[in-house]
Amino acid sequence: MASEGEDSALATALTSTLKEKNSLLIYACGIGLSFVYPVVAVILYYVTALMWIIRDLRIEKTLK
């Protein structure tokens, strides 16, 4: 993005930070729940990992 500038298609595709905010929220909930329900906390960590493994369609939609 540094070489293409802030107005590039890639920069436009990555303006939404919903995935990042959701990850932080899920991690925070997992940390809080780990003291009471450790199994639920582990499940939340797996959900967050799966969320990042699934490809980001924002880039593909913008480049088409």
Low-pLDDT sequence parts: none
Structural class: mainly alpha
Mean pLDDT: 83
Helix content: 55-70%
* Tally of alpha and pi helices: 4
Number of domains: 1
Annotation, overall tally of beta strands: 0
Report how far the terminal alpha carbons are from each other.
18 Å
Radius of gyration: 16 Å
Please outline the major beta sheet: none
Succession of helices and strands: HHHH
Summarize it:
The chain is mainly α and 64 residues long. It contains 4 helices and no strands.
Q: Could you please describe the fold and organization of this structure?
A:
The protein starts with 8 loop residues before the first helix and ends with a helix. Helix 2 (18-33) packs antiparallel against helix 3 (38-53). The chain has one domain (9-63). The radius of gyration is 16 Å and the shape is elongated. It is built from 4 helices and no strands. The protein has helices at 9-13, 18-33, 38-53, 57-63. It is an all-alpha fold.
